[in-house]
Amino acid sequence: MRDRQRSLARRLLSRKYWRLVAMVCCLLLSSHGFGLAAATPQSGGHLVVAVPLEPDTFDPHKAVAAATKEIDFNIYQGLISYDTDGGIIPCLAESWDISEDGTVYTFKLRKGVRFHNGRKLTLDDVRFSLERIRDDATGYPLTWHKNISELAMLDDSRIRITLKEPYAPFLSELADAAIIPEEAVATIATQPVGTGPFKFVEWMTGQHVKLARFDEYWEKGVPYLDLVTFKIIPDPSTAMLNLKAGAVHAIPRLSPDVAWEVEAAHDLKLLQGPMNLVQLMAINLDREPFTDVRLRQAINYAIDKDLLIEGAAWGFGSKIGSNMSPGMDTYYADLSEHYPYDPVKARTLLATAGYPEGFPVTLSLPAAYDLHVKTGEMVAAMLQDVGIQAKIELVEWGTWLDRIYAKRDYELTIVGFTGKLDPHTVLNRYTSDYARNFSNFRHKEYDNLIEEGLKITDLAQRQAIYRRCQEILAEEAVAVYIMDPNDLVAMRNEVSGWRFYPKYVDDIRYVYFEK
Amino acid sequence: MQYLWRRIGALLVTLIIACTITFAVFYIIPGDPALLMVGTEADPDVLVSLRRELGLDEPWHVQYWQWLKGIATGDLGNSIRLQRPVVELILERLPVTLGLAVLAMILTVLIGVPAGAYAAAHRGGVADYLTIFISQIGLAIPHFLLGILLLLLFSVRWQILPPGGFVPWSINPWQALLSLFLPALALASHRIALVTRITRATMLDALNKDYIRTGLSKGLPKQVIIYKHALKNSLIPVVTVASMHFAGLLAGSIVAEEVFALPGLGRLLLQAIGYRDLPLVQGVALFVALAVVLTSFGTDVLYLALDPRIRYE
């Protein structure tokens, strides 16, 4: 096993090396042309983007599927938005004030914004949309609204939102609160109307969603494209064939398994950005013998994360050591070396904890997620190496959510937590009374820190709090935090302007064809 | 007439059994549609209100009764995930699945029957061995693999056919036909091979019959004997097999639809099961059961045309 692992690592490393060489060459070759093209984006054209899944509904206050959000980011907008590194930026609100105690937010509405139906955006629309979200009958995916105590229009351009108690992630969550016109509500689920850079054209179920450039969009100079089609292609090989045939121009969130095909094709390019996803092996802390922290640490020492990144994600990922992606660099604490790969130490810890011969354990893997399954197969072998007899169990996604996630019936499992903009929402899931704390982690200091973090608006203080939280998770070895896989986008050479965000969206605003 | 009533009775029983089984299976397998909709980010309050809105908080017998009542009035309910009427969703997917099934069947019969008959007529010759060899490959190759290979050749290398996707019949019938051609060929490959072999076997059998010898001895041309008398009498088993496959095709082909990105019933059903979208799964199951029963009815009628001695009492 040892030798096999090592030779595998060597093979993978040499492949990574060649890829690096190839990438540098490409950069050198293309930098000149790229510089010219970047200076003058071209207008016009029809972009086709491959997406694997069907949207659920275009009602922005009801949609829950990631497949919908990646598309409707181009249709709907909220009072605020976020930039590529997750920082909050003005959107339909051109500015805002926050009171000293963090409970009163006053937003100033941007002037000259129009809905796709041609009508001017007014403060009444903002009020209507926020009220609709607050209404229990409609607003189920967004829960923060319960914290709003009052919505008041101060004049025709300013709205004041008062919170019952300070809630630091409020602004970042407001990014998802789409502002929609009241007259379109009846048909909004299938005929979306927003203020975004693209307006809705058609949704043919199982086939595609088509958007067209909105000429009266408020941001100057964008978008460049005339038409965008999100083509629903469930099979990754077919998506790749479409890209090669030119029937598709971009595949976001490409599987790393087919990345080599993109690199091998002369008319395609591969873009990489952070995914803001935390891949972890969760441990059920209520199950024996995982109540003993030494055993959880032993498992952490037994796992070679570098090899997992090479072997399961083809090298496209960053090692992590706690429940946060390096993409959130404002709050990120680098703990990736907290448990270096050390099988000898793992065996010693097992022995001191009373399990010199190891113990049997079941590793449940969500079958729908190839990355987690591949990671799990390697993890099982690594655990075997230190004497822990890991048995793999493949679980269908619906069953995973129900049995493992909601009912907490498992020993070990591998899953990915998708990115959020605020550290509170990322780390809150480990508080003792959080309903989906499926690790069963209970820690007084941690709970207090999370509680405190909500009330503080000072950045330095918040940074200190959330960094400490990440340290606690690492010290307590709550899980094996493995990697943040890279977001890979395969594109035809002539397409430019793609931007990566720490959220699951495809921003088509800045995309253009080079010729 | 009595025969017709019996068929309709059988149809109803089949439909009820199919629905009840689907319904029961959904209560046995784990999984919660509301949880599947919101995923790992689920907030428990959100789940409760979502379940209430979807009517999932009702006990099973209430849900089942309401669904049965709906069917009686032609209303199959709404899809949980897509929040649209199930009937509408099925009708939307039907042109693809039906088109694919008919096209695949046409290819199967037009290639399989003549090839099998020709092979039988030239038993032991080069053509016979070649037919057996090719049909062996057709039986062995998985259709998803063949699908990808066809895409690679026709869509990427030669670029003469679209690389998956579907153009609706109403927009451009010719394009619609083109977009269904490769998937139909991939789906048909296995069936062509099967029909070829069955036709060949039953033809060989028929060629040994007395009436063939009689025909030969009274001086009828060989071509007429083989392709008129023998072939017609060999077709009943072929029709049986073909109609079973046609019914299967009407249920939608999950793999071919995934590979060719076609919005057919198979993918609709697969998604619906994945999301535990019970009303949609029920609706599709009901439709498939209906298609199977109607196809077998059609087959019986076809038997009459092929063999006038057959009577249904």
Bulk shape of chain B: globular
CATH topology of the largest domain in chain B: MetI-like fold
Distance between the ends of chain B = 8 Å
Mean pLDDT of chain B: 86
Count of distinct strands of chain B: 0
Beta content of chain B comes to: under 5%
**Class of secondary structure makeup of chain B:** mainly alpha
Question: Residue share in helices of chain B?
Answer: over 70%
What is the CATH domain class of the largest domain in chain B?
A: Mainly Alpha
Helical stretch tally of chain B: 13
CATH superfamily of the largest domain in chain A: Dipeptide-binding Protein, Domain 3
Residue fraction in strands of chain A: 15-25%
Q: Which residues of chain B sit in consecutive blocks of at least 5 with pLDDT less than 50?
A: none
Number of domains of chain A: 3
Short description:
The complex is a heterodimer of chains A (515) and B (313). Chain A is 32% helix and 22% strand. With 515 residues, chain A is of the alpha+beta class.
Q: What descriptive keywords fit this protein?
A:
heterodimer, A: 515 residues, alpha+beta, D-Maltodextrin-Binding Protein, domain 2, Dipeptide-binding Protein, domain 1, Dipeptide-binding Protein, domain 3, 3 domains, 8-stranded mixed beta sheet, 4-stranded mixed beta sheet, 14 helices, 32% helix, 22% strand, disordered N terminus, B: 313 residues, mainly alpha, MetI-like fold, 2 domains, 13 helices, 0% strand
